[in-house]
Design brief:
Number of helices: 19
Structural class: alpha+beta
Number of strands: 24
Amino acid sequence: MSEAGSQSWLSKVQAMVGREALPPQTASDPVNLPMIRRWCEAMGERNPLYLNAATAPPATMFMWTMHHFRQDLTREGGSLLGLDLVDAAGFTSVVATNVEEEYCRDLRVGDLITQRVTLDAISEEKKTGLGVGHFVTYRYEFSDQKGELIGRTLFRVLKFRPPAKPKDAAAGAKVPEAKKPSYPRPPVTRDGAFFWEGLNQRKLFVRKCGQCGRLHHPPGPMCRSAIRSSGPRCSAAVAAPSTASWSCISRRSRVSSTRCRWRSSISRRGCAWWPICAMWRRRRCASACLSRWTSSRSRRTSCCPSFVSETCAEVSMNFSYSEEQQSLRQLAAQIFNDRVTDDFRREFGRSGAPYDAGLWKTLAGAGLLGTAIGEEHGGSGLGLTEVCLALEEQGRTLAAVPLLATLVLGALPVQKFGTAAQRAALLPRVASGESLLTAALEETGGGDPLLPAVRATASGEGWRLRGVKDCVPYGAQAHRILITARTGRRAVGVFILDPKARGVRVQPQATSSGEPQARIRLSNVEVSAADLLGGAEGGAEVVRWLVERGRVALAAQQLGLAAEALRRTAAYTAERVQFGRPTGSFQGVQHRLADGYIDIEALRSVYLRALWALENDIPAAAEVAAAKWWAARCGHRVTHTAQHLHGGMGADVDYPIHAFFLRARQIELALGGATPMLAAIGQQLASGTVPPMT
């Protein structure tokens, strides 16, 4: 091409800069949880903020508007503006060079993304290693249904002339055989693994959606009509021609049998089309009764290779944490470790602040404050197990945040027993980090939480509260306090109290560990009937339920605390040299460290058993009592060992190990001490109210 011709086409393309390169394209589907989780699975993303919340990674903004094949098997979209002129000039080869992305905000479930593309620039002729060509840049802008900018991308490609074909070196030279083309391996994900396993068995599996009635092949994350529908999102069946079919678990289903029970957690994952075999690999429950099979036993085993037995009792148990639980623990550990160093904790303790507001905001942004809050209120819909994983990591760092008070003593009972109005008023603000909750269970002289001294007297359509509560964690900072009060001779109620109400007096109390507590004085405080949690007759159940979970949560904190104290002590004795040898090489020191390790593992065992029983709604009085006793005993023994083996350093109040000792001692006293708890366990066993644990 002549120089004049070159300048002619180049000037035409340069005149197009700033113009629309493609018509605006709106996504076929709104942002939805199933597609978010499929993307996260494919990319290896394990952040619970995206897996369990109504938020999508900003990097997925391209995904929602990508071109795809229509039903007539033609690809949507056309050529970008200007590329036809570049191709006509002989620059027909192309290679992507770089991408610059800018994210304005996270995507939210329900956003309908629109993509707009403009021609941003074209360079003069350049000589590159691939050949002579031009760099062409396109600007992609993504906005939601309201026109709010979500992000933008600059995508740059090099259009260059293909190299000339080499001539044969000599006539008759042997032409090398062309290599067979290599084909990329197909991506195998959990919800599509059954399809590839079927191909290995020379079977073709297709899906038939129970909602729209269409066959889907190849298998995708879910049906579009199910995405747009307001009804159940997993009304599907998986079928193989001439073999068998089985049903997918429906949304929020609960399937039970006489041998075991399995509680579906599909609703937390958006309820995509999870085949039975994929569910088995997820190991959602150690003994999972998943679904009713619709074919004979001989066909079941041939259709689903992962289904290895017919009854739950024959399935091998797996005690490891699930992937999302491990991800949540790792996220919590990273946040706590990055923020709460020994120097930071020391300086924060001198600041006088009741809790670390910056860390609390970070936990809210990561979605950890909504761990046990339902999805409809901005949470993740998980449970006590996941909350306790975060509490263990808090115990390792002694982070000054009201995690136990707000999530376990406040949010969990409101989520379980609260009315729709109570949950809507409190839980979204907890998940976002705007509100703190706590519970007032302790009174002067101790006593049974089921028999509080605070009195509640019926007054018109509400109640009047009188009495005193002591040692209320974060009582002066909480926006709402759960107050237990006696409503009758043997009846008890739980009331949601506004600490700013008339007649409430909050007096801060100092503690040895630095955790803020408060004394709450109630003088004829009026509480409406709408603020009664669990109803007038269900107060005793609420208190018992709350106390058991509070004790297990304290055991979780004690476990993380004791494990970290022992780890620090082992590291110190390995470096501290006495009489020419590390003190860790002395037999007496090794024995004490070994005893501490045994105590920690014993606590871990009984705590996990109690946690498992509570999560499965199994009566757990004996398990909770054992966890409570071991938490008090283990914390006392391990932190004393840590102080003794640190020598004089352990008695220094500014040295980190002393902070672990103080916090462990406070948890021990909050649990009632090991000796009184052992006596209570003995009384339970002697009376026959609980069976001995084997």
